[in-house]
From TrEMBL:
Function description: Adenine glycosylase active on G-A mispairs. MutY also corrects error-prone DNA synthesis past GO lesions which are due to the oxidatively damaged form of guanine: 7,8-dihydro-8-oxoguanine (8-oxo-dGTP).
Full protein name: Adenine DNA glycosylase
Keyword hit for Iron-sulfur: yes
Gene Ontology biological process terms from the UniProt entry: base-excision repair; mismatch repair
Species of provenance: Muricoccus nepalensis
Family, as annotated: Belongs to the Nth/MutY family.
Alphabetized SMART domains for the sequence: ENDO3c, FES
Top-rank EC class of the record's enzyme: hydrolase
DNA sequence: AATTCGGGGTA
DNA sequence: TACCCAGAATT
């Protein structure tokens, strides 16, 4: 494996062109607030900078430090995270905050951070480098791409990680990188995000343009190679929205683990491959004896590994206590606390009755749009 | 090593 | 559409 290029031109480029981001503080290595760095890294897991920006500020406003987060009940954390996805991140964030408070502060080493829930190899290295100035290189999607191109690694991901990781770590053998570890790793992120992009990288602007083996060989567009991934399966759901005389909605707590774990949902029949008829789904209704009316149209939502299509039945319910595991909630609070798939289902109830009005782009289809895709038989 | 976890922006 | 995003945990 050849030596990685000099850190000096990358740091010089970073000093001129770095992105201005809410969690990015300027100061000497080790001066950053580890809570803020940690929160940003967790939010940024598989989530774009543009999405995280406003949510990060909102979250910090509500939970300004690790003690405030640790003291908060789970329901408040879940509602604040709603819509961001990968809800295990919120559960682990909450648990880790309590662990940090219990031990009297953040661990300041990679190994110590790695032991906290929700902190894997990447996040431990990122917090160690950015918040504590440790000489370690976190390997995210950006770094994988930059290193694979710099060294012209043709092996497909994810297998190529066994080559990319050690190669990336060798950057910290250089004095220039060790002097500014946090800046150096963020420079790698910025290079991957703005210059060494997945498609059509702007090699002419790259501080490493003369060091890059992929560019020299003209294969930068095809790197890193990736192994083919499995196709997404389809699922069908039928959900039941009950309103009490005060207009409140009956919601159900999902199990703490698994898909949308720990979040609220509109109760319904289990998702399966075949569509549900109202009659056969009735035993899964949250309250017995109600008169359910099926709404026109469907709400659809794609998760990472499955495409979900949901229909909605509605009923007026008498004033009654919520069944175990369920809760009555005002519509506004309900919408705020629900994950996106359920917000789309809820929008089906709030939307117009007329057909063909819902937008496909928003994940809601009227009867016409659904028929066009052949989903209504 | 392969799956299971969300959701949105982009070409 | 398909791909990608400052990945982690489980099997």
């Amino acid at each position: 494996m050849p030596d990685p290029p000099s850190a000096v031109p990358l740091l010089a480029w970073y000093d001129r062109h770095r992105r201005v981001l809410p969690w990015r503080v300027t100061g000497p290595p080790g001066s950053a607030d580890p809570y803020r760095i940690w929160l940003s890294e967790v939010m940024l897991q598989q989530t774009t900078v543009a999405t995280v920006g406003p949510r990060y500020d909102r979250f910090l406003g509500r939970f300004p430090d690790v003690a405030a987060l640790a003291a908060a009940p789970w329901e408040e954390v879940a509602a604040e995270w709603a819509g961001l996805g990968y809800y295990a991140r919120a559960r682990n964030l909450h648990a880790a905050a309590r662990a940090v408070v219990a031990r009297g502060g953040f661990p300041d080493t990679e190994e110590g951070l790695r032991a906290l829930p929700g902190i894997g190899a990447y996040t431990a290295a990122a917090v160690a480098a950015i918040a504590f100035g440790r000489p370690t290189v976190p390997v995210d999607g950006n770094v994988e791409r930059v290193v694979a191109r710099l060294l012209a690694i043709r092996d497909p991901l994810p297998g190529a990680r066994r080559l990319i990781g050690p190669a990336a770590g060798r950057f910290m053998e250089q004095e220039a990188a060790r002097t500014r570890p946090g800046d150096f790793v963020q420079a790698l992120f910025d290079l991957g995000a703005t210059i060494c992009t997945p498609r059509r990288p702007a090699c002419a602007l790259c501080p490493w343009r003369d060091d890059c083996r992929a560019r020299r060989e003209g294969i930068q567009d095809g790197l890193p190679a990736k192994s083919p991934k499995a196709a997404r399966g389809g699922r069908q759901g039928l959900h039941f929205l009950a309103r009490d005389p005060a207009g409140r909605l009956l919601l159900r707590h999902r199990p703490p683990e698994g898909l949308l774990g720990g979040m609220l949902e509109i109760p319904g029949a289990p998702w399966r491959e075949e569509p549900w008829e109202l009659e056969e789904a009735l035993p899964h209704a949250p309250l017995p004896g109600l008169s359910w009316t099926l709404r026109p149209g469907t709400a659809h939502h794609s998760f990472s590994h499955l495409d979900l299509e949901m229909r909605l039945a509605e009923a007026a319910a008498p004033d009654s206590p919520a069944p175990p595991g369920m809760t009555w909630m005002e519509p506004g609070a309900a919408r705020a606390a629900l994950p996106t798939a359920m917000r789309r289902l809820l929008a089906l109830a709030e939307g117009p009755l007329a057909e063909g009005v819902g937008g496909v782009a928003s994940g809601i289809s009227g009867a016409r749009g659904a028929r066009r895709r052949g989903t209504l038989g």
